Amino acid sequence: MQASQLLRITALSVALGATIVATGCSATPTQASAGEVIDDTWITTKVKAAFVEDKTVSALNINVETFRGTVQLSGFANSAAEVQRAGQIASGIKGVKAVKNDIRLKQSVS
Predict the structure, then answer these.
(1) 73 forms bridges with which residues in the sheet?
(2) pLDDT for 34-80, tens place per residue?
(3) Non-local CB neighbours of 49 within 8 Å, separated by 6+ positions
(4) Using CA atoms, how far apart are residues 74 and 95, in angstroms rounded to an integer?
(5) Residue pLDDT, tens place only, 18-38
(6) How many CB atoms lie within 10 A of CB 44?
(7) How far apart are CA 48 and CA 96, in angstroms?
(8) How far, in Å, CA of 101 to CA of 7, rounded?
(9) What b/e string do you get for 87-107 counting C-beta neighbours within 10 Å, with b at 16 or more?
(10) Between the CA of residue 70 and those of 26, 65, 99, 110, what are the distances in Å?
(11) Where are the alpha helices (DSSP H) in the chain?
């Protein structure tokens, strides 16, 4: 099994688990409803899968969280181009309302 396939299976498993845990919840200002959780989980999964497919973005170094359609990216990138590309990919996913790109550049040690 290729690493990209394993990463996709892992991402889908995590997404499914989060969906199962959250299905009984109703919406509050700080907590999404079950339907929103499912939508957010789907968006997160699609963003992660798109990162795996992209040669510029390191899917293993970037974390993705979604809350009510807003995607938050965090982690570390090797270049400004990778930071920008990750934001572009996330904003292009269906259902994404906004992207908060908190990815930081790795600092080289001299």
Answers:
(1) 64, 101
(2) 555 678 999 999 999 999 999 999 889 999 999 999 999 999 999 99
(3) 8, 11
(4) 19
(5) 555 555 555 555 555 555 567
(6) 23
(7) 13
(8) 22
(9) bebbeebeebeebebebeeee
(10) 19, 8, 6, 37
(11) 3-22, 34-53, 80-91
